[in-house]
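Exercise: predict the fold of this chain.
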Amino acid sequence: MEKETMFSNRLGKVYKHRSKQARRTNVSCYRIYDHDLPEFPFCIELYEDKLYLAEYLRRHGMTDEEHDAWLGGCLKIITEITGIAPENIYIRQRKRMSHRGDDQYEKMDTKQEFFTVSEQGLKFLVNLTDYLDTGLFLDHRITRQQVRESSEGKNVLNLFCYTGSFSVYAAAGGAKTVTSVDLSKTYLNWAEDNMVINLLKDKEKYRFVHADVKQYLKTLQPDSFDLVIMDPPTFSNSKRMKDFLDIQRDHVELLNDVLSAVTPGGTVYFSTNFTKFILDEPAIKATSIKDITRNTTPFDFEGKLKRWCYKIIK
Protein backbone atom coordinates (compact mmCIF):
# COMPACT_ATOMS: atom_id res chain seq x y z
CA MET A 1 0.00 0.00 0.00
CA GLU A 2 2.93 2.34 0.63
CA LYS A 3 3.96 2.23 -3.05
CA GLU A 4 0.37 2.85 -4.19
CA THR A 5 0.28 5.90 -1.91
CA MET A 6 3.50 7.18 -3.49
CA PHE A 7 1.97 6.76 -6.95
CA SER A 8 -1.24 8.49 -5.88
CA ASN A 9 0.66 11.42 -4.37
CA ARG A 10 2.93 11.81 -7.39
CA LEU A 11 0.12 11.55 -9.94
CA GLY A 12 -2.05 13.93 -7.93
CA LYS A 13 0.73 16.51 -7.76
CA VAL A 14 1.64 16.48 -11.47
CA TYR A 15 -2.00 16.33 -12.59
CA LYS A 16 -2.91 19.36 -10.51
CA HIS A 17 0.09 21.30 -11.85
CA ARG A 18 -0.33 20.36 -15.52
CA SER A 19 -4.11 20.62 -15.66
CA LYS A 20 -3.79 24.16 -14.29
CA GLN A 21 -1.25 25.02 -17.00
CA ALA A 22 -3.47 23.40 -19.62
CA ARG A 23 -6.49 25.45 -18.61
CA ARG A 24 -4.45 28.64 -18.61
CA THR A 25 -3.07 27.98 -22.12
CA ASN A 26 -6.24 26.39 -23.54
CA VAL A 27 -4.57 23.00 -24.16
CA SER A 28 -6.83 19.94 -24.09
CA CYS A 29 -4.40 17.16 -25.06
CA TYR A 30 -1.27 16.72 -22.95
CA ARG A 31 0.90 14.21 -21.12
CA ILE A 32 0.27 13.85 -17.40
CA TYR A 33 2.82 11.28 -16.33
CA ASP A 34 5.75 9.42 -17.89
CA HIS A 35 7.44 6.77 -15.76
CA ASP A 36 7.93 9.29 -12.95
CA LEU A 37 8.28 6.39 -10.47
CA PRO A 38 10.18 3.22 -11.50
CA GLU A 39 7.60 0.97 -9.85
CA PHE A 40 4.83 2.49 -11.99
CA PRO A 41 6.14 2.49 -15.58
CA PHE A 42 3.22 4.22 -17.26
CA CYS A 43 2.81 6.85 -19.91
CA ILE A 44 -0.46 8.67 -19.22
CA GLU A 45 -1.84 11.14 -21.75
CA LEU A 46 -5.08 13.08 -21.74
CA TYR A 47 -7.00 13.53 -25.00
CA GLU A 48 -9.82 15.82 -23.91
CA ASP A 49 -12.31 13.49 -22.16
CA LYS A 50 -10.32 10.31 -22.84
CA LEU A 51 -7.18 8.92 -21.26
CA TYR A 52 -4.42 6.93 -22.94
CA LEU A 53 -2.58 4.65 -20.50
CA ALA A 54 0.44 2.78 -21.83
CA GLU A 55 2.32 0.40 -19.58
CA TYR A 56 5.94 -0.10 -20.62
CA LEU A 57 6.70 -3.81 -20.59
CA ARG A 58 9.31 -4.93 -18.10
CA ARG A 59 10.12 -7.91 -15.88
CA HIS A 60 7.85 -7.24 -12.94
CA GLY A 61 7.98 -10.67 -11.29
CA MET A 62 4.20 -10.85 -10.87
CA THR A 63 1.89 -13.63 -11.96
CA ASP A 64 -0.84 -12.68 -14.45
CA GLU A 65 -3.35 -12.59 -11.60
CA GLU A 66 -1.11 -10.41 -9.44
CA HIS A 67 -0.42 -8.08 -12.32
CA ASP A 68 -4.14 -7.73 -13.11
CA ALA A 69 -4.84 -6.88 -9.48
CA TRP A 70 -1.96 -4.37 -9.40
CA LEU A 71 -3.13 -2.73 -12.63
CA GLY A 72 -6.68 -2.59 -11.32
CA GLY A 73 -5.47 -0.75 -8.24
CA CYS A 74 -3.54 1.70 -10.40
CA LEU A 75 -6.60 2.33 -12.57
CA LYS A 76 -8.66 3.11 -9.48
CA ILE A 77 -6.10 5.71 -8.42
CA ILE A 78 -5.94 7.22 -11.93
CA THR A 79 -9.74 7.45 -12.13
CA GLU A 80 -10.02 9.07 -8.70
CA ILE A 81 -7.41 11.71 -9.49
CA THR A 82 -8.33 12.59 -13.09
CA GLY A 83 -12.08 12.05 -12.90
CA ILE A 84 -11.93 10.12 -16.20
CA ALA A 85 -14.45 7.27 -16.21
CA PRO A 86 -12.99 3.75 -16.62
CA GLU A 87 -14.79 3.26 -19.94
CA ASN A 88 -12.88 6.27 -21.32
CA ILE A 89 -9.46 4.91 -20.33
CA TYR A 90 -7.62 3.11 -23.14
CA ILE A 91 -4.96 0.70 -21.88
CA ARG A 92 -2.01 -0.41 -23.95
CA GLN A 93 1.20 -2.31 -23.30
CA ARG A 94 4.28 -1.30 -25.23
CA LYS A 95 8.01 -1.87 -25.27
CA ARG A 96 10.16 1.00 -24.11
CA MET A 97 11.93 2.31 -27.20
CA SER A 98 14.20 5.25 -27.91
CA HIS A 99 12.89 5.59 -31.45
CA ARG A 100 10.14 4.91 -33.91
CA GLY A 101 11.38 2.04 -36.04
CA ASP A 102 9.75 0.00 -38.78
CA ASP A 103 7.09 -1.16 -36.32
CA GLN A 104 5.60 2.33 -36.43
CA TYR A 105 3.50 0.91 -39.28
CA GLU A 106 2.46 -2.19 -37.38
CA LYS A 107 -1.25 -2.50 -36.72
CA MET A 108 -1.94 -3.45 -33.11
CA ASP A 109 -5.73 -3.86 -33.27
CA THR A 110 -8.63 -3.35 -35.67
CA LYS A 111 -11.23 -1.48 -33.64
CA GLN A 112 -11.04 1.63 -35.86
CA GLU A 113 -12.13 3.87 -32.99
CA PHE A 114 -11.20 7.29 -34.33
CA PHE A 115 -12.31 10.45 -32.58
CA THR A 116 -11.56 14.13 -33.07
CA VAL A 117 -9.59 16.35 -30.72
CA SER A 118 -8.74 20.04 -31.01
CA GLU A 119 -5.42 21.84 -30.76
CA GLN A 120 -4.95 25.57 -31.35
CA GLY A 121 -8.32 25.69 -33.11
CA LEU A 122 -7.44 22.82 -35.46
CA LYS A 123 -8.89 19.31 -35.53
CA PHE A 124 -7.07 15.99 -35.51
CA LEU A 125 -8.18 12.38 -35.71
CA VAL A 126 -6.78 10.26 -32.87
CA ASN A 127 -6.86 6.49 -32.41
CA LEU A 128 -6.01 5.07 -28.98
CA THR A 129 -6.46 1.38 -29.79
CA ASP A 130 -5.12 0.29 -33.17
CA TYR A 131 -1.58 1.61 -33.64
CA LEU A 132 1.69 1.93 -31.77
CA ASP A 133 1.18 5.70 -31.51
CA THR A 134 -2.02 7.70 -31.13
CA GLY A 135 -1.74 9.82 -34.28
CA LEU A 136 -0.75 13.09 -32.58
CA PHE A 137 2.71 13.57 -31.07
CA LEU A 138 2.04 15.83 -28.09
CA ASP A 139 5.69 16.85 -27.69
CA HIS A 140 5.59 18.65 -31.06
CA ARG A 141 2.81 21.03 -30.01
CA ILE A 142 5.04 24.13 -29.84
CA THR A 143 6.99 23.24 -32.99
CA ARG A 144 3.73 22.84 -34.90
CA GLN A 145 2.70 26.36 -33.90
CA GLN A 146 6.10 27.72 -34.99
CA VAL A 147 5.55 26.13 -38.41
CA ARG A 148 2.09 27.67 -38.62
CA GLU A 149 3.44 31.12 -37.85
CA SER A 150 6.12 30.90 -40.54
CA SER A 151 4.21 29.22 -43.41
CA GLU A 152 2.31 32.06 -45.04
CA GLY A 153 2.87 32.18 -48.79
CA LYS A 154 5.49 29.42 -48.70
CA ASN A 155 5.90 26.08 -50.43
CA VAL A 156 6.09 23.62 -47.54
CA LEU A 157 7.43 20.06 -47.55
CA ASN A 158 6.58 17.67 -44.70
CA LEU A 159 8.86 14.59 -44.82
CA PHE A 160 8.10 11.40 -42.85
CA CYS A 161 4.78 13.19 -42.40
CA TYR A 162 3.03 10.47 -40.33
CA THR A 163 -0.58 11.66 -39.87
CA GLY A 164 0.11 15.12 -41.25
CA SER A 165 -0.31 17.34 -38.19
CA PHE A 166 2.49 19.65 -39.39
CA SER A 167 0.83 19.76 -42.80
CA VAL A 168 -2.45 20.90 -41.25
CA TYR A 169 -0.67 23.63 -39.29
CA ALA A 170 1.24 24.80 -42.37
CA ALA A 171 -1.91 24.95 -44.48
CA ALA A 172 -3.78 26.75 -41.69
CA GLY A 173 -0.90 29.23 -41.59
CA GLY A 174 -1.51 30.19 -45.21
CA ALA A 175 1.07 28.06 -47.02
CA LYS A 176 1.03 28.41 -50.80
CA THR A 177 1.43 24.64 -51.18
CA VAL A 178 1.95 21.73 -48.79
CA THR A 179 3.50 18.42 -49.89
CA SER A 180 3.30 15.51 -47.43
CA VAL A 181 5.55 12.46 -47.94
CA ASP A 182 5.48 9.12 -46.13
CA LEU A 183 6.17 5.45 -46.83
CA SER A 184 2.88 4.34 -45.27
CA LYS A 185 -0.34 4.62 -47.27
CA THR A 186 -2.27 4.17 -44.02
CA TYR A 187 -0.72 7.27 -42.50
CA LEU A 188 -0.96 9.25 -45.75
CA ASN A 189 -4.69 8.54 -45.85
CA TRP A 190 -4.92 9.57 -42.20
CA ALA A 191 -3.02 12.79 -43.03
CA GLU A 192 -5.42 13.55 -45.87
CA ASP A 193 -8.39 12.95 -43.54
CA ASN A 194 -6.86 15.39 -41.05
CA MET A 195 -6.65 18.01 -43.80
CA VAL A 196 -10.25 17.36 -44.89
CA ILE A 197 -11.77 17.72 -41.41
CA ASN A 198 -10.09 21.13 -41.27
CA LEU A 199 -11.70 21.99 -44.63
CA LEU A 200 -8.32 21.97 -46.37
CA LYS A 201 -9.37 20.12 -49.52
CA ASP A 202 -7.62 21.83 -52.45
CA LYS A 203 -5.78 18.96 -54.19
CA GLU A 204 -3.77 21.40 -56.29
CA LYS A 205 -2.32 23.01 -53.16
CA TYR A 206 -2.14 19.97 -50.87
CA ARG A 207 -0.32 16.94 -52.28
CA PHE A 208 0.29 13.53 -50.66
CA VAL A 209 3.23 11.50 -51.93
CA HIS A 210 3.71 7.80 -51.17
CA ALA A 211 7.49 7.38 -51.28
CA ASP A 212 10.70 6.40 -49.54
CA VAL A 213 11.98 9.79 -48.40
CA LYS A 214 15.65 8.95 -49.01
CA GLN A 215 14.90 8.15 -52.66
CA TYR A 216 12.32 10.94 -53.06
CA LEU A 217 14.82 13.62 -52.06
CA LYS A 218 17.11 12.61 -54.94
CA THR A 219 14.32 13.52 -57.41
CA LEU A 220 13.70 17.08 -56.21
CA GLN A 221 14.67 20.14 -58.23
CA PRO A 222 16.81 22.82 -56.55
CA ASP A 223 14.96 25.66 -54.80
CA SER A 224 11.63 23.80 -54.79
CA PHE A 225 10.57 24.52 -51.21
CA ASP A 226 10.80 27.41 -48.74
CA LEU A 227 10.06 25.47 -45.53
CA VAL A 228 10.68 21.81 -44.71
CA ILE A 229 9.74 19.71 -41.70
CA MET A 230 11.66 16.48 -41.25
CA ASP A 231 11.01 14.19 -38.28
CA PRO A 232 12.40 10.78 -39.30
CA PRO A 233 12.39 7.54 -37.33
CA THR A 234 15.69 6.67 -35.68
CA PHE A 235 15.87 3.43 -37.62
CA SER A 236 13.77 1.82 -40.33
CA ASN A 237 14.35 -1.28 -42.44
CA SER A 238 10.99 -1.57 -44.17
CA LYS A 239 10.84 -3.98 -47.09
CA ARG A 240 9.40 -1.09 -49.10
CA MET A 241 12.69 0.81 -48.83
CA LYS A 242 15.69 0.32 -51.12
CA ASP A 243 18.01 0.86 -48.16
CA PHE A 244 17.56 0.92 -44.40
CA LEU A 245 17.52 4.23 -42.52
CA ASP A 246 19.80 4.95 -39.57
CA ILE A 247 19.35 8.58 -38.55
CA GLN A 248 22.75 8.92 -36.89
CA ARG A 249 24.48 7.52 -39.96
CA ASP A 250 22.25 9.16 -42.56
CA HIS A 251 21.30 12.58 -41.17
CA VAL A 252 24.04 14.51 -42.99
CA GLU A 253 23.08 13.10 -46.39
CA LEU A 254 19.38 13.61 -45.68
CA LEU A 255 19.81 17.19 -44.53
CA ASN A 256 22.12 18.15 -47.41
CA ASP A 257 19.68 16.63 -49.91
CA VAL A 258 16.88 18.59 -48.26
CA LEU A 259 18.89 21.82 -48.26
CA SER A 260 19.63 21.48 -51.97
CA ALA A 261 15.86 21.53 -52.58
CA VAL A 262 15.33 24.57 -50.32
CA THR A 263 15.34 28.17 -51.55
CA PRO A 264 18.16 30.45 -50.32
CA GLY A 265 17.29 31.64 -46.82
CA GLY A 266 14.73 28.83 -46.48
CA THR A 267 14.15 26.94 -43.24
CA VAL A 268 14.34 23.28 -42.23
CA TYR A 269 12.87 22.10 -38.94
CA PHE A 270 14.70 18.87 -38.19
CA SER A 271 13.95 16.69 -35.18
CA THR A 272 14.77 13.22 -33.89
CA ASN A 273 13.74 11.29 -30.81
CA PHE A 274 17.03 9.38 -30.74
CA THR A 275 18.21 10.63 -27.35
CA LYS A 276 21.90 9.83 -28.05
CA PHE A 277 21.87 11.74 -31.32
CA ILE A 278 24.91 13.87 -32.21
CA LEU A 279 24.49 16.41 -35.00
CA ASP A 280 27.48 16.56 -37.37
CA GLU A 281 27.16 20.31 -37.79
CA PRO A 282 30.35 20.99 -39.84
CA ALA A 283 29.24 18.53 -42.53
CA ILE A 284 25.86 20.20 -43.07
CA LYS A 285 25.74 22.80 -45.83
CA ALA A 286 23.76 25.46 -44.01
CA THR A 287 24.35 29.09 -43.09
CA SER A 288 22.81 28.71 -39.64
CA ILE A 289 21.96 25.82 -37.31
CA LYS A 290 20.22 26.47 -34.01
CA ASP A 291 19.34 23.91 -31.35
CA ILE A 292 15.77 24.86 -30.36
CA THR A 293 15.05 21.77 -28.25
CA ARG A 294 14.44 23.70 -25.03
CA ASN A 295 12.34 26.33 -26.80
CA THR A 296 10.02 23.71 -28.25
CA THR A 297 9.46 21.52 -25.18
CA PRO A 298 5.83 21.73 -23.95
CA PHE A 299 5.06 22.03 -20.24
CA ASP A 300 3.94 18.40 -20.11
CA PHE A 301 7.46 17.24 -21.02
CA GLU A 302 9.29 19.47 -18.53
CA GLY A 303 12.78 18.22 -17.76
CA LYS A 304 12.49 15.16 -20.01
CA LEU A 305 14.30 15.01 -23.32
CA LYS A 306 11.95 13.34 -25.76
CA ARG A 307 13.13 14.83 -29.01
CA TRP A 308 16.03 16.94 -30.28
CA CYS A 309 14.87 19.82 -32.48
CA TYR A 310 16.92 22.07 -34.75
CA LYS A 311 16.11 25.09 -36.89
CA ILE A 312 18.39 25.07 -39.94
CA ILE A 313 18.67 27.97 -42.39
CA LYS A 314 20.07 27.48 -45.88
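Check your answer against the key: Residues 143 and 296 are 6 Å apart (CA to CA).
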